[in-house]
Amino acid sequence: MERNDRIFVAGHRGLVGSAIVRRLQAERFDNILTATREQLDLRDQAAVNYWFRANRPEYVFLVAGTVGGILANSTRPAEFIYDNMLIHATVVHAAHFFKTKKLLYLGSSCIYPRECAQPIKEQYLLTGPLEPTNEAYALAKIAGIKLCQSYRTQYGCNFISAMPTNLYGSNDNFDLTSSHVLPALIRKFHEAKVEGSRDVTVWGSGTPRREFLHVDDLADACLFLMRSYEDAQHINVGTGEDLTIRELAEMVRDVVYPAAAIRFDRSKPDGMPRKLLDVGRLHELGWRHRIDLRDGLAQTYDWFMQQVACGEAMRA
Ligand code: GDP
Fold first, then answer.
1. Does any domain span residue 140?
2. pTM of the full predicted structure?
């Protein structure tokens, strides 16, 4: 990738896309292409073709999609499977047709079987049944990997796939009905502090284990892979370390509201018991994460205070 190459970040308003744009800007890439949802419906093949014909991106970061946490995934599966299947298909097809040099497709660690051996190696894909709470999303993401591999096999396209673990950071979604656990906990502890109530409710039993990667580390990994990874096989991106939801809740409590008391609502689903990625292949290539979870959490709480909480307080 040269500084003046045309680089399309599909999904630039999201958690991942915005981090990739920040990173490209910091490295002084000056031909970053973006399109808002209003400008371009990525589910519409004709519109995507038209946009590719006009803009001819040479590199594509395909990080757009309909995403959400355990509640959104289990209550809106139709949206998750329909939007994601189409977004991946249209962009991959246009990238092939308009001769994009390289495309990086981003999946998710939820693609792996529910009862997977841990840590999860790339080759465990499609070796068992999926976790029901995110099956629709996972199927769309698996189809995306196979899509990239098929275009590589049949047309020789240089399309690669990366599977990140659970992400967090600036620009995350803090809406309690659709967010993932980490931003949800930041909001819950913050609101309890503001309201002066001691109890904070955490969904499920607190025993599931999750791995968290700061989105700035992910953006760094995406540029690294775009520059150096050429394999057909997808590659895991994570830290290689996990913790229980209870431990995460305690860490958020310590950062946001140390006086709070944690309660568990066992009527809510736990989801996957554990999903720790094996990041051995990525480490062998020479990439490692840099941002420690506690530091990343504190930075994300600062971002939340500046961008979300202040705005809401002013509107109230
Ligand atoms: P997952 O990694 O796909 O299961 O997605 P989430 O990030 O939504 O949830 C991870 C785990 O955190 C699950 O076991 C949830 O039950 C648990 N969890 C605890 N409290 C919350 C919360 O307030 N919101 C969300 N989304 N998950 C929570």
1. yes
2. 0.96
- pLDDT tens figures, 258-295: 999 999 999 999 999 999 999 999 999 999 999 999 99
Query: Could you give the CA distance from residue 52 to residue 55 in angstroms, rounded to a whole number?
Result: 5
Q: Quick check: is 175 in a domain?
A: yes
Using the mean position of ligand 1's atoms as its centre, give its distance from the Cα of residue 245 in Å: 8
- Please report the DSSP string for 72-137 in residue order: HHHH-HHHHHHHHHHHHHHHHHHHHHTT-SEEEEE--GGGS-TT--SSBPGGGTTSSPPPGGGHHH
Ligand 1: atom nearest CA of 269 is: 16
- pLDDT single digits (tens) 95-124: 999 999 999 999 999 999 999 999 999 999
Number of domains in the chain: 1
How far, in Å, is the centroid of ligand 1 from the Cα of 125? Answer: 22
Report which protein residue has its CA nearest ligand 1's atom 23. 184
Beta strands in 151-257 (DSSP E): 159-164, 166-168, 199-203, 209-210, 212-214, 235-237, 243-244
